[in-house]
Amino acid sequence: MRKTRKTLTAISTVTAAAALQCCLPAAVCGQTWLSNDQKQKLALTAATTPVVPDTTFFIAEGMPSLSFSQVYYSDSWNDGVNSMGFRAAFFGSTTHLRKRIFFRNSLDMAYARSKEGEATTSVKKEDRLNYNSVFGYRMVDVLPFYWVGQLDLKTQFDVGENAKGTEISRFFAPAYIIVSLGSRYQSELGLSMAVSPLSGRFTVVADTSYAKYVDIDLADNPRYFRTQIGAYCQLAYVSKMSKQFSIKTTLELFSNYLDSPQNIDVDWTTSASFSFNRFFSVIFFNRIIYRDKDRYTAKMGVDAAGNPLWVTKGPKLQWAESLNIGLAYRFATK
């Protein structure tokens, strides 16, 4: 019985080797200097070598959107104010994965204006320009942990005003730039967490007239920017729950080691979209910000002549929310 098994095993091995030999490249099989035994050994080596799947892929996706709003009241409606406005937005990202390397870039932009009543000019309602780039190297094959370097930039397109009507910001005045090194957990379910014990945040003011609103002393900062060294943490969740509904939320925390580390800066954004069909969607956006060095202007009553009294305060929790219905088109390529 043992001899029969050995014979059957030898026959099956030779048969498999002969079959695999036919699958070898012609450049190898056609060589006359290789003996039959050498070709069979080469075929068996190829058969026992595990095939490593190709994990290289590239994904580009995005969603531009455009919506309009219009409100009209007749003369008999005493409390109503006519208005009309628009909102344009775009979110796009590219993801490149090759073996253990992970590289992702994303761009988030939005701009909205509205004209109310008899005003001759429109008022800015939303303005953001965010860019994020992450480069990671996987620690081990079996766990989704990465060593990462990250660059994050946040600024705006247009001039911003406070409650008093004074210009306090514009493009790159200010701009918040974070450069961090650390580790990242990236789940296949859309959950990610990045922790960086060593990161630098740079507040750039391209125009000196806006420096005081982000608490930058020009006497100490002739180059118009402030440098902060601290810890940075980012929690994110992205999910396409169905063909129609998707949600994305990102929480960013920063603590300055050198100045009041207990005062943690917070930037939390949430966006969700529901698509009626291929071109029409409802888009919700929410953002909560707290920056320890930001300043704002508030009205504190009036003087004896009836003129408003303004004081500069800060910091405080800032909250913005918008809900829009309009054109939106989602695309993705692989």
Description:
- This protein is mostly beta strands and 334 residues long.
- The chain is built from 3 helices and 17 strands.
- It has helices at 2-23, 26-29, 36-48, and strands at 57-71, 83-98, 101-116, 123-138, 145-155, 160-161, 167-169, 175-186, 191-204, 225-239, 245-256, 265-275, 280-290, 296-302, 308-313, 318-328, 331-333.
- A hairpin with a 6-residue loop joins strand 4 and strand 5.
- It is flat, with a radius of gyration of 30 Å.
- The model is unreliable at 1-33 (pLDDT under 50).
Short description:
It contains three helices and 17 strands.
Return residue spans where pLDDT drops below 50 for at least 5 consecutive residues: 1-33
Under CATH, the topology of the largest domain can be stated as Outer membrane phospholipase (ompla), Chain C
Major sheet description: 12 strands, antiparallel, barrel
Number of DSSP helical runs: 3
Q: How far from one another are the termini? A: 56 Å
- CATH level 1 name of the largest domain: Mainly Beta
Q: What is the alpha-carbon Rg in Å?
A: 30 Å
How many strand elements? 17
The structure class reads: mainly beta
Task: Tell me, briefly, the overall form.
Answer: flat
Write the layout of secondary structure elements.
Layout lengths: L1 H22 L2 H4 L6 H13 L8 E15 L11 E16 L2 E16 L6 E16 L6 E11 L4 E2 L5 E3 L5 E12 L4 E14 L20 E15 L5 E12 L8 E11 L4 E11 L5 E7 L5 E6 L4 E11 L2 E3 L1
Helix pairs in contact: 1-3
Main attributes of the structure:
single chain, 334 residues, mainly beta, Outer membrane phospholipase (ompla), Chain C, 2 domains, 12-stranded antiparallel barrel, two-stranded antiparallel ribbon, 17 strands, 54% strand, flat, disordered N terminus
